[in-house]
Amino acid sequence: MRAWRVHENGEPGRVMTLEEAPRPEPAAGQVLLTVRAAAVNFPDALLCRGQYQVRPPLPFTPGVEICGTTDDGRRVITTAALPHGGFATHALADAAGLLPAPDSLGDASAAALLIGYQTGWFALHRRARLQAGETLLVHAAAGGVGSAAVQLGRAAGARVIGVVGGSAKADAARALGCDVVLDRHRDDIVAAVREATGGRGADVVFDPVGGDAYTQSARCVAFEGRIVVVGFAGGTVPAPALNHALVKNYSILGLHWGLYATKDPAAVADCHRRLTELADRGAIDPYVSERVPLADAADAVQRVADGTTTGRLVVVPDAA
Predict the structure, then answer these.
(1) Average of per-residue pLDDT across 252-256
(2) Could you tell me the pTM of the whole model?
(3) CA distance 181 to 77
(4) Scanning 22, 253, 297, 301, which has the fewest C-beta atoms within 10 Å of its C-beta?
């Protein structure tokens, strides 16, 4: 098979190499998948850099999110069983983690459904208990995870304010359905959120960025609001002053979606059923901005790492 492999840690564009490799042999409880599509995620870049919480042995194949076909013909979505990830023609996955790919979504869209939308659903519904009519502030609203949160917020009946960086991403956020779009390069985020909410602030904040984004969130969250910390794509882990949380009685909530696979797998399956229903009725539709051939996977991961993309990039092994 063909597979991108990482033999040393570093920037994806430098350390990922496309090689001929033997097909991996499934261990007990695993299945071999023929990869139909593999979505690019920021953790793929962190894996290449050796900065992710999971560090597979070298060499490994990145690509944590897959739509594939089992040997018995089922079309499924799943996370890969590293070190045999999805940026290859074949990958391994845990049999217990396989979920049916929604019939309403093509391969690329199905590959982009699992991590981003499960993260968004658990953040907004399980952790923050978002209610219809509330205001949701989404940082990196045109990115892979942020775009999912925007669509899920809209589907829940919330008013969505999206924060982006640059005019192209602002256009994408508007197309996704944001009611208000703010450009962090041009707008005073705190003042603009307060103005857009009549001084109340955002009821729920979805923050996959950290750093300055978190600082802004704490200043414009509403009384009894909820800030959901999803990640630190901005590269800086904030150290919040907890006394500030007392000022407006707001909550700081953490979300590591991957824990649910081991702590509460039934919740993951239930979430997938809900997401499938939303996809079937057109309430959510993963924003796949680009389908790239396998030969261009390293470049795609590097671009996601550099923050220059909108929506989801998906690697399709048989793409022209």
Answers:
(1) 96
(2) 0.93
(3) 32
(4) 22
